[in-house]
Amino acid sequence: MTFEQAVLGFAVVAALLTVVPGVDTALVLRSSISHSRGYAAATALGVLSGTIAWGIAAAVGATALLAASTLVYRVFSLAGAVYLAWMGARFIVKSFRGGVAQDAELPALRGSARRGFTTGLVTNLLNPKVGVFYLAAIPQFLPEGVSPIVMGTVLALVHNAFGLVWFAALILAGSALGARLRSPRVMRWLDRVTGGVLLLFGVRLALDFRSAP
Hints:
Blueprint: H1 3-19, H2 23-34, H3 37-59, H4 64-68, H5 70-97, H6 113-125, H7 128-137, H8 148-181, H9 184-211
């Protein structure tokens, strides 16, 4: 397998993986509707940075520990499950506590770009399924004569290229819809739906934790 063949082959897998709905998509979409574009972009950059970290780790074999060690995988799964469930529950509780009587249009919440970046990064890094995917996929696209670290970084950047386009589309669409959807009633339901998605993924990770051998 040549370098070009490896990149093209991985690009097909990365493109399909990018558009599959998941935690990252829900997080960025929610940020684009309820916050500013800058906050949503920072969240997306956090997610993409986590992807690069996983790609490099998989290339050098660090994530092999997730597959080889049941204890490490369980710790990661439990940490990820608790974090996602906590985020989901926080969104849901906030939507009931922060009810607004009037339906006047709300301005976009600016938030902190650093907070958005951290949220995206931590959410991605605490998802062990991302690490397992990279562990399974990247070794199959490592041509001879190319440094694993270099190749892992290149493949992660390929994945990020698709992610950048996908997240940009989500942010633009969310920002455009945000002007119409950013009412107290809609925002409460948006938080409940987003919280439910995060909570669901947290529960699924917890079930994986319990069923791991």
